[in-house]
Write the structure tokens for this entry.
Amino acid sequence: MKTPMKYQPNNRFAAILFCTFAFVASYIAAKNAPSANAHTNTLTTHATNAASVGIAEAHMIAYNPLAAVALADDKAALMAKGEKVYKGYCQTCHQANGQGLASVYPPVAASDYIKKNGIKDVALGVLWGRSGKMTVNGKEYNGVMAPIPSNYTDEDVAGVVTYVMNSFGNPGGIITTAEITKLRKAGKPKK
Ligand code: HEC
């Protein structure tokens, strides 16, 4: 009876020693490669999650009402570009306020011709030119308008058509660069 009692503290000491050793050993093990890998994996997971969140956010922007803001920005960009093209090219004939010139160049301001024929007709006229008799705001014209020079891009054409449609009292609307590219590819329509 006395002997086990005597060894008990030693056993307890041994147990504590073993536990301490085990703890230290596991601590050392924890600081080694598997732990480091786990850490790296965690980082990778975080990065992946961040990327997914980024994609999810992009989708949210694409499908939420903020898209209307993006569209407005597109229109603003087309208008800015279009104003430059109008002033640098169309204005020579149709004049600064779109009022046209005498009986030679019809007005593009508050034009009943534009209102009646629409944005696509304006685009086709710019792309392929115009000729023959036409009546604009009660006045007859019979002139020739050349196609827009080829150094003007499809974006320039989309811009100037959008600009004319939204200026000078015309009814508004937007035509995109992609739509102009399509019209150009389809070729000059036969009348
Ligand atoms: C060199 C002169 C000239 C230039 C530059 C010119 N046009 Fe014209 N435009 C005319 C003439 C002339 C007509 C009438 C054609 C006819 O009688 O068949 C016309 C007709 C039009 C019409 C249809 C009638 C109307 O007034 O509503 C539109 C729209 C038009 N032009 C827009 C443009 C735009 C936009 C540009 C610039 C990208 C442009 N034009 C550049 C001479 C020009």
Observations:
- Helices lie at 2-30, 33-63, 67-94, 112-128, 154-165, 177-186.
- Residues 67-186 form a domain with the Cytochrome Bc1 Complex; Chain D, domain 2 fold (CATH 1.10.760.10).
- The chain has two domains: 2-63, 67-186.
- DSSP finds six helices and two strands in the chain.
